[in-house]
Specification:
- The protein is mostly helical.
- Helices cover 47% and strands 9% of the residues.
- The strands form 5 sheets. Strands 3-4-7 form a 3-stranded antiparallel beta sheet. It has a two-stranded parallel sheet with strand order 1-2.
- The longest helix is centred in the first third of the chain and has 17 residues.
- The protein is elongated, with a radius of gyration of 32 Å.
- It starts with 7 loop residues before the first strand and ends with a helix.
- The protein binds one RNA strand of 75 nucleotides through α4, β6, α6, β11 and α11.
Length: 503
RNA sequence: GGCGCUAUCGUCUAGGGGUUAGGACGGAAGAUUCUCAAUCUUCAAACUCGGGUUCGAUUCCCGAUAGCGCUACCA
């Protein structure tokens, strides 16, 4: 049994919605394995389920994959030597090989009705036996069966499962063996002429010369049927690698109700693709030594190894993803983060649709100030509330602020500070702010928190926040800009605050 | 029900017949800064259970238990 020496892998999603993290991880491991081996990555669309498949989902899927940073060498959008790459375009191929199996006696026509099968199945279940097909049509005379079919009797095609245990090798699980006693003769072609998943997958993988089938372990139990199919068709059996399931925090298979689980969700949240890729790679794989965790896509291509993939299921941990995302946000060139962040601010109507250079330069300071402390970029507009949403009522009344303002020296500090602000009508600068604060300290005797907190509360509406040196220029410049929402200057804030509460 | 897969800190994992069972996220404490964040330091936290095999098992074998999957003319 020889297999082409060049590695060929495939990712074969069904176009039934957005790409899910579980599938994305499967795609990633395929891609990493292929790229490392200098092999070929095939993208195949499994759209035999006409009920659930939609054309628009296919382009979504490709977009999701591309956003993550994956690419492929053959696929429905690229073609290639073993196309077509959409199962709905391959129906004739499936029929042809199914008939070939019947002619060779490896498969047979089955005339059992749905009701009959169901009854048989229920009966076996009731007697606590494996609910496998009775084999009733196995013994039918082939010539006779063909006659019946040509007379118009509905016939499905079933594969004959061999009378011996089925063994196969799996890179992550080792040797796996199934007794043929528990494997039913599977239908490969429905009486309607539509082929069944477990069959088309084998035909496609074999015809597309796939050498390594890397997929979710929900397919592990289907593999014996597929191995039997390869053998019946006279095709080499590929290597398998069944990847563990990704679970939610409740240890149940990750699904929509666990919140963000599609790649599109993460993109919308402003998670960086390389952070997601890095995180996904860590779900079930660790480098030798097990201490390194930060890997760029290029590094993953070098370090990844299927042999080091764990067989046990993994719980998806949002916090750890965020940790990686924070890391990559800080590592990224500022211009990239600014560009990405911009859309979130435009959507929040904090920036105009087409910000000019002046606004962009100003916005860059906001991003530089806030982005390093954010889990994901969609948190930025909210973090920027201290710039865009100054509310004197909150500054005065919120319980934490009220407490700060009730400190003995708070009133004096604010009065002294206001005096400094009013004495000079030009824009506040960090230098002037610092010297003013020094004067306030000297005048009032307040120091540390009792000096800074009241000012912080009056200016930002919160007793905590970023450094004044960086915040003040943003406030002052922002107040000069033509923005959808006016940004209040230091002076304006102080006045609004004083109007609410004297000092 | 049957079959299969899986089992190390809360989570992701490294390790492997004799180890102080390592790292990371998260948590706690401290240092630092006006505060928050960041940073640094420190701490707590694990081999599912029961039998074997062995001088010695967390590691190998068997079983139990639990979780997940498959058991369709679904994919």
């Amino acid at each position: 049994m020889t297999i082409a020496s060049q590695v060929r892998v495939r990712f074969a999603p069904s176009p039934t919605g957005h790409l899910h993290v579980g599938n994305a991880r499967t795609a990633l491991f395929n891609w990493l394995f292929a790229r490392q081996a200098g092999g070929v990555m095939v993208l195949r669309i499994e759209d035999t389920d006409v009920e659930r498949s939609e054309a628009r989902f296919e382009s979504q899927l490709l977009d999701d994959l591309k956003w993550l940073g994956l690419d492929w060498d053959e696929g429905p959008d690229l073609s290639g030597p073993y196309g077509p790459y959409r199962q709905s375009d391959r129906v004739a191929v499936y029929r042809e090989h199914a008939e070939r199996l019947v002619s060779a006696g490896k498969a047979y026509l089955c005339f059992c009705s749905q009701e009959e099968l169901e009854r048989d199945r229920d009966e076996k279940l009731a007697r606590q036996l494996p609910p496998i097909y009775s084999g009733k049509c196995r013994a039918l005379d082939p010539v006779e069966a063909q006659h019946r079919r040509s007379r118009g009797d509905a016939a499905a095609i079933r594969l004959r499962i061999p009378e011996h245990p089925i063994r196969f090798h799996d890179i992550v699980h080792g040797m796996v063996e199934f007794s043929n006693e528990v494997v039913s003769d599977p239908i490969i072609l429905r009486s309607s002429g539509i082929p069944v998943y477990n069959y088309v997958v084998v035909v496609d993988d074999a015809l597309m010369k796939i050498t390594h089938v890397i997929r979710g372990d929900d397919h592990l139990s289907n593999t014996p049927k597929q191995v039997a199919l390869y053998e019946a068709l006279g095709w080499p059996v590929p290597e398998f690698a069944h990847l563990s399931t990704i679970l939610g925090t409740d240890r149940e298979r990750l699904s929509k109700r666990h919140g963000a689980t599609s790649i599109a969700n993460f993109r919308e949240m402003g998670v960086l693709p390389e952070a997601l890729m890095n995180y996904l790679a860590l779900l079930g794989w660790a480098p030798s030594g097990g201490t390194r965790e930060i890997f760029t896509p290029e590094e993953l291509k070098k370090e990844f190894s299927l042999q080091r993939v764990t067989p046990s299921p993994a719980v998806f941990d949002m916090e750890k993803l965020y940790w990686l995302d924070r890391h990559y946000i800080r590592q990224s060139p500022p211009e990239r983060i600014e560009k990405l962040a911009e859309s979130f601010f435009i959507r929040a109507r904090l920036l105009p649709d087409n910000p000019g250079d002046r606004i962009r330069a100003w916005f860059a300071k906001i991003v530089a100030l806030l982005a390093p402390s954010v889990d994901k970029l969609d948190e930025l507009p909210e973090r920027a509330a201290l710039i865009f949403d100054y509310d004197a009522a909150v500054a005065v009344n919120s319980p934490e602020n009220a407490e700060v303002l009730a400190w003995p020296k708070s009133g004096d500090v604010l009065a002294a500070f206001a005096q400094r602000v009013e004495s000079d009508s030009s824009a506040m600068t960090p230098e002037r702010f610092r010297s003013s604060m020094n004067e306030v300290r000297a005048e009032t005797g307040a120091r540390g928190k009792e000096l800074f907190h009241p000012v912080r509360v009056a200016l930002t509406g919160s007793h905590s926040g970023p450094e004044f040196d960086r915040l003040i220029p943003i406030l002052e410049e922002g107040s000069q800009l033509d923005l959808p929402r006016h940004v209040m200057s230091v002076r304006e804030r102080l006045e609004a605050f004083r109007a609410r509460r004297g000092f």
